[in-house]
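STRUCTURE REQUEST FORM
Protein name: Penicillin-binding protein, beta-lactamase class C
Source organism: Saccharomonospora cyanea NA-134
Requested output: structure tokens
Priority: standard
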Amino acid sequence: MKRTLLVLAVAALLGGLPATPASAEQPGADTFDDYLAQAWEGTGVPGLSAVVTHHDRIVHASGHGHDADGGAITEHTPMRVASVSKSFTATAVLTLVDDDRVALDEPVVSYLPEFHMADERARRITVRELLNQTSGLSDTAVDIAAAEEATSLSEYVAALRDGTLAADPGTRWEYCNVNYELAARLVEVVSGQPFGDYLRERVFTPLGMSSSAVDASEVTPALGHNSLFGLWFPRSELEGFLDNGGAGGVVTTARDMGRWLIAQHGHGPAVVTPESLAELHRPVTEAEYAMGWGRQRVGERDLLVHSGNLFTYTAVQAVDPDTGWGFAVLVNGAGLYDDAYEVLTGLVELSQGGTPDALGGSRQVVELVLGLLALTATGLGALGVVRAGRWARASGSGPRWWLGVRLAGVAVPVVVLAAYPDLASVLMNGRTVTWEQLTYFALPLTVTLALAALASVATVVARVVALRSVGSAR
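Status: completed
Returned output:
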């Protein structure tokens, strides 16, 4: 949910690179483990797990920290990986393409006749456009809140009936979870199986990902966490994000992600053909988004990347097609700062023989500043109430319009709080943001704004009351 994702893919590279012999410069498991232990301590997250692969082998997989019950996080600890799930969903669709049961450039309605929208252009959306996120679907044009109340993928699709498109299909890239929920439903309808069953049968099981699922009743994830001014506490995930969907439903482990990353280099069991693997990684439009992967500059490397944030979890995966390295980082917490991505950058640098900077402090500094602002706002509010009488006596003789301006100035934090979800939506490229969501990963900022608004209201009310009292006395 947090970065514009970009993609790198060349079919010849992804078809399988020859193994590179180990060299003295190549980091070993101990190097990665030492870095991850330091990263966990530096970032201060409750727990993280990570895996590093090179061509056809897992170089290192480990976990650090604890879960909500105090148990140790290991490379076998299941966690939600949020939007990293999209690459799995796209792969499931491509298996149907390989079986000649789906064609990428056919309209979605050819396979999913239940898909209807108030906008006739929706009938032209192709399967490829869903996976490339160029369908014209947007959070701004459909009722996301209604869709997320659905308890099944079929109900989700039905909730889109009154929606419209924000652009003609194929003309604009826009990240929207609806694309991948539709893709998951397409898999269900074409295969005749629940999405989770199909993903397990055609992707997880062939790759040996025995601890992965899109159903939390099959694989129970560690409880996620949120941070408030530096203190982490466990929280259940938002109900609207607990469905078994294709946009963010996968639960997996670092060890299983290692097998998945190896497959992205064309090694191990092949769940799709080399041609389909290249298609999954091929960028489109100026966004260079492919199918659940994106090209992004990480340090000095152009990598295939996709990250995810599910409000109490963060995750990121990356593959370097040129060197054969793969990386995944899973964190059982989410805050205003993406610690998982920061850890990933260090792993990438290590793989290239570099020495990463010490991690930690970024999130803590942000939350410390917000905490100080919250205390300051509270103190100013209390001072404003205490000194309301003095302010009224000094200002009561002035023109009313000037008093109104001064009171309005004090009320600015209230206006900011009222516009908070809309402002957050703008910062997240138009994605729908609800008040409930803002009480999760953005909790420190939400509390700070709420306290500032409360202090503002208290000051304004106290001054108005004091003005009336001064007026009556005169």
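Reviewer notes: The first strand starts at residue 47 and ends at 54. Confidence is low (pLDDT under 50) at residues 1-24.
Form closed.
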